[in-house]
Amino acid sequence: MRWPVLILVLLGTGLLLWPRAGVSVRVDGRPVLWFPTVEGERFELSWRHSVSGIVVRDVFAVEDGRIYLEETHNPWFAAGLGEVEGRGRVVAEANHAVAIVDIHEPADDLKLRIGRPEIHHTLWIRGRGYDFSACFSHRRLTWSLDARPWLLALFPAKDPCL
Length: 162
Description:
15% helix, 4-stranded antiparallel β-sheet, alpha+beta, 162 residues
């Protein structure tokens, strides 16, 4: 009778320690957010342009163990934006907005200087926003894919400020 219980305990423990893929976000090298991901999942980084005030959204996807920039959305066709061969295609959106889609550029090593609080550099994951500008303005944000045990992945880590 002890062996079946022991086997169940060992299997359960093994499953809880099995690695779960996720994105680790760091500010100045210090972990501030970790969230689990699945293949093909998308998340967004949005911010308010410091000069024009427009909200820009970049869409990223997790694919084949990497993070890719897939799309960028802008309320209008601003200077410098346009179609660049091999780097996505421009499509019109409602109210004269524009998007560049099908970009598919690796973004595993994103480095971002977080803007001041009114810029609202915000990471959107499954409908939840994390405003890094409110907590970490003028600091360096980086991210990467990594894995955590399933048990820890049940409780995504985040800095108390977020």
